[in-house]
Design brief:
The complex is a heterotrimer of chains A (about 250), B (about 375) and C (about 220). Chain B has about 375 residues and is an alpha+beta fold. In chain B, about 60% of the residues lie in helices and about 10% in strands. The chains are: A alpha/beta (about 250), B alpha+beta (about 375), C mainly alpha (about 220).
């Protein structure tokens, strides 16, 4: 069973001014799988995930060379950032719902993309919240502020907000680092649920998390991909000594 | 040795603490004295008339159609044909009561426009008879003589601050209509669009310095540019334009502050959902910054209300409700400029103090409003 | 319900162990049948089936390692997985012994007829009960059954001593039967080992259920 390739990254380099944050990345990311990026702080994993939906465009002084294609289309040359980001949604480290109601949060994406009809929005909001496994918890307080629920619920609302724009890919940048263990497991379960329909890329500080949910794992160090392979292989029999040192906690 | 050191330190601490307390007490005392003085001087002058009357006395001739006496009253000061009662007030014949069906309510001035007589209007002439220095009864007798239309000379007493109040409001509204959109847009540009670098730093530096320039310099500029070059004369528009320029730095920096307080995470989330910069600004950033912007506007209103130097040479000191934006009809003294003028020209300290009381109340109300707005928005944003 | 994929993995692992157990049960039953009738065909089948069990053991081992690596099992989950790794070794050993006995059945078939000691069938049924009870106690997580298995081991040991004595006497009385007696001596040793491994498994099942390690 060979994987369908969603993203193909070749010779990707990224510079912040004179500092090279990503060095010659080559990687193929499989469709409808969970790919995890692990590595110590500042290793470039977050930077890399942000190149996939071009969030780095927003930062001044960033220069990128090389190529990333999604379904064979170059996302930097042949796609504009706005339409890319509607296909590649993102969930952030800190739950960051907007200071508005739960409903408005989830409806935000559809609204900015021109959906105005109340019944259509209602449908999208319910579907997204259900998919994010939070509907039952918030269905009675959709008009309440999204900031008035727990951190774990906020994060699932943020996931629902991302699902509402019907992306093909969901990027998760350390989505559970600010959450308690139970909320973390809920988000992990959700991710494994969602991978039937979405390609998921997750950055995590938590190696065990990568182990629990991902199909493939890439180990980043100093802006380079040291090792990339099946998660089982990376966790049982890493080929590179640096990977071994990192996942066994003998790093640094 | 150790003990002496400790005692020394205690003494130093005591002296310093004493100085700090003394400074605080001094400040509070000075403030209390100022406010007390203003209230002491100004409060007696404040009454209903002061708040509702025109500034200057106004003399008018009116024609009144007399009626056949409908009601008779056992009062020698009652003018049956006009349905008014007269009284003597400060050696003036004054209307003290007007009947409901009185014909003076249909009085017409010389241009045939309605000029409704009011209580406390002074009557100085009826037809050709001067009724000054008469008693109320004598004047009533004069007015009751004859039939048909009578021409009456009326003096409506001034001494109120209505023109200044209205002018102040006009200038507040005009200045904000000009300054707020420009200032907010500039702040958005500087915070959201402008590329970080030397030019941005230069612009910020300039704005900070503009905020520190004495207002009289803005006044001078306004007089030269708006009043003279643009030939606006002393006018409400020239004054408002001058104030707008003066307010811009404050509005820009306060708005920028508010924009900077919007967590970057909101912007990220919005962009991450595929919204454009404009959509993000309109739907996320502006609503979030609204309380800050409102506070900036209220602070601006405070400055407008308190401003005199920038307005004396641009809006003038004429106490009138401006009839136009520019030109000779458009002069408009605000409360503060009138206060300045009063002290300078007539040394009328008590009227100036009365205006000061009104200003004090206004400023306090504005401050409370700004606090309330911030609090309401903070609770709205937070957990509810 | 949380950690659904992990729970599913545990379930699958459990099923694989049960499958391994049922194959062992089949081999044990057939081995007894083959021994009774000195049936070479069945004996060959049992030897062949041993590969299947070996393969299954490797699979389960790999699954356990993966689960430990990826899911960080704790408490009951951790006990279950580590115990399973031990249990499958013992199951594999028992299966090995079935095929070892089968080898001797084949050897016996080539020797003149010999009537085994009477108590052998008692030992066989005691051992069979132990194996089957062990597998059942794993499936049902039955602490009493597992404890019963551990107690029954002494009984099998006694039978072993008794039959060894019998065979030794037979060999002295009738030296002709020495080759057959040696075969049976080996067979009862294997049977005794099978009971020992069942006891081991029962100990691990007790550990899964109670969390107490049998020391000493």
């Amino acid at each position: 069973m060979s994987d369908i390739i969603k993203f193909s990254v070749s010779d990707l380099n990224l510079f912040y001014g004179n500092f090279q944050a990503l060095k010659n990345i080559n990687m193929k990311i499989a469709k409808e799988k969970i790919t995890a990026f692990i590595g110590p702080s500042g290793c470039g994993k977050s930077t890399f995930i942000k190149t996939v939906n071009r969030m780095n465009d927003l930062i001044e002084g960033v220069r990128i060379t090389g190529e990333i294609t999604m379904d064979g289309v170059d996302i930097y040359k042949d796609m504009d950032a706005i339409s890319l980001r509607t296909r590649v949604g993102m969930v952030f480290q800190q739950p960051n719902p907007f200071p508005m109601s739960i409903y408005d949060n989830v409806a935000y994406g559809p609204r900015i993309h021109g959906i105005r009809k109340k019944n259509v929005l209602d449908e999208i909001v319910e579907k997204s919240l259900r998919q994010a496994a939070i509907w039952d918890e918030v269905k009675d307080k959709l008009k309440k502020s999204a900031l008035a629920v727990s951190g774990g619920q906020q994060q699932r609302i943020c996931i629902a907000r991302t699902l509402a724009i019907e992306p093909e890919v969901i990027l998760m940048d350390e989505p559970t680092s600010a959450l308690d263990p139970i909320s973390t497991l809920k988000i992990e379960d959700l991710a494994t649920e969602l991978k039937q329909f979405y390609t998921i890329i997750i950055v995590t500080h938590n190696m065990q998390q990568a182990g629990r949910i991902s199909d493939k794992t890439a180990f980043f160090l100093n802006g380079e991909v040291i090792e990339y392979g099946e998660t089982e292989q990376i966790f049982n029999k890493p080929r590179n000594k640096k990977t071994e040192d990192y996942i066994t906690g003998r790093f640094g | 040795m150790e003990k002496r050191k400790r005692n020394d330190r205690k003494l130093k601490d005591g002296i310093l603490q004493g100085l700090i307390y003394l400074s605080a007490i001094l400040t509070v005392t000075v403030l209390a004295v100022i406010i007390g003085f203003i209230l002491y001087k100004g409060l007696p002058g404040i009454n209903f008339d002061f708040l509702t009357r025109q500034w200057d006395d106004r003399t008018t001739f009116v024609n009144v159609e007399r009626k056949a006496a409908l009601t008779e009253k056992n009062d020698a000061a009652y003018v049956a044909s006009l349905g008014i009662t007269l009284a003597l007030d400060n050696e003036n014949i004054v209307i003290s009561h007007i009947d409901k069906d009185s014909p003076v309510k249909a009085a017409l001035n010389m241009k045939n426009q309605a000029y409704v007589l009011k209580k406390k209007d002074i009557i100085t002439k009826a037809g050709d008879v001067k009724i000054e220095k008469m008693t109320a009864e004598e004047a009533a007798a004069v007015l009751n003589e004859g039939m048909g239309v009578v021409r009456i000379k009326i003096i409506r007493p001034g001494g109120g601050i209505v023109p200044m109040l209205v002018s102040t409001i006009y200038i507040i509204l005009l200045s904000l209509i000009i300054a707020a959109p420009v200032g907010i847009s500039s702040a958005i540009f500087l915070n959201e669009y402008a590329k970080r670098g030397r030019i941005l730093r230069l612009i910020r530096f300039a704005i900070q310095n503009l905020a520190g320039i004495p207002s009289i310099i803005y006044g001078l500029f306004g007089m030269l540019v708006f009043v003279q070059i643009f030939k606006m004369q002393y006018s409400v528009l020239a004054g408002s334009l001058t104030l707008s320029i003066m307010l811009l730095p404050t509005i820009i920096s306060t708005t920028e502050e508010a924009l900077r307080e919007i967590p970057p995470a909101y912007r990220e989330a919005s962009f991450g959902l595929g919204s454009t910069k404009l959509q993000t600004i309109r739907r996320i950033i502006l609503p979030g910054a609204l309380p800050g912007i409102l506070v900036a506007i209220i602070l601006s209103i405070g400055r407008i209300v308190g401003e005199s130097a920038a307005l004396i040479w641009t809006a003038g000191t004429v106490a009138q409700i401006p009839g136009a934006l520019v030109g000779s009809e458009a002069g408009a003294a605000t409360l503060t400029t009138k206060m300045y003028w009063l002290i300078k020209e007539s040394a009328d300290l008590s009227t100036a103090s009365s205006i000061a009381v009104v200003l004090l109340v206004l400023i306090i109300v504005l401050n409370i409003a700004s606090k309330l707005i911030t609090r309401v928005f903070l609770t709205k944003k937070g957990m509810n | 319900m949380m950690r659904q994929s992990f729970i599913a993995q545990l379930e699958e692992l459990n099923n694989k162990v049960i499958k391994m157990g049922s194959i062992l049960e089949l081999s044990t039953n057939e081995m007894i049948l083959a021994l009774d009738n000195t049936d070479v065909e069945i004996a060959k089948k049992i030897i062949k089936r041993d590969d299947e069990i070996d393969l299954l053991e490797q699979h389960i081992e790999r699954d356990c390692i993966n689960i430990i690596a990826k899911q960080q099992p704790l408490a009951t989950d951790l006990r279950k997985i580590t115990s399973i790794m031990k249990i499958i070794t013992d199951i594999e050993r028992i299966a090995d012994q079935c095929s070892d006995i089968s080898e001797y059945i084949i050897r016996l078939s080539k020797l003149p007829n010999f009537s085994a000691p009477k108590t052998l069938s008692d030992m066989i049924s005691a051992m069979k009960k132990m194996v089957i009870d062990t597998i059942d106690s794993f499936v049902e997580a039955d602490l009493d059954k597992a404890s019963g298995v551990i107690l029954a081991d002494d009984e099998v040991d006694e039978y072993f001593e008794k039959i060894t004595q019998d065979l030794s006497e037979m060999m002295q009385e009738e030296p002709k039967t020495v080759p057959q007696c040696i075969c049976y001596l080996m067979i009862i040793k294997y049977l005794e080992r099978m009971a020992d491994h069942s006891t081991n498994i029962a100990e691990w099942i007790k550990f899964i259920i109670t969390g107490d390690l049998a020391l000493g």
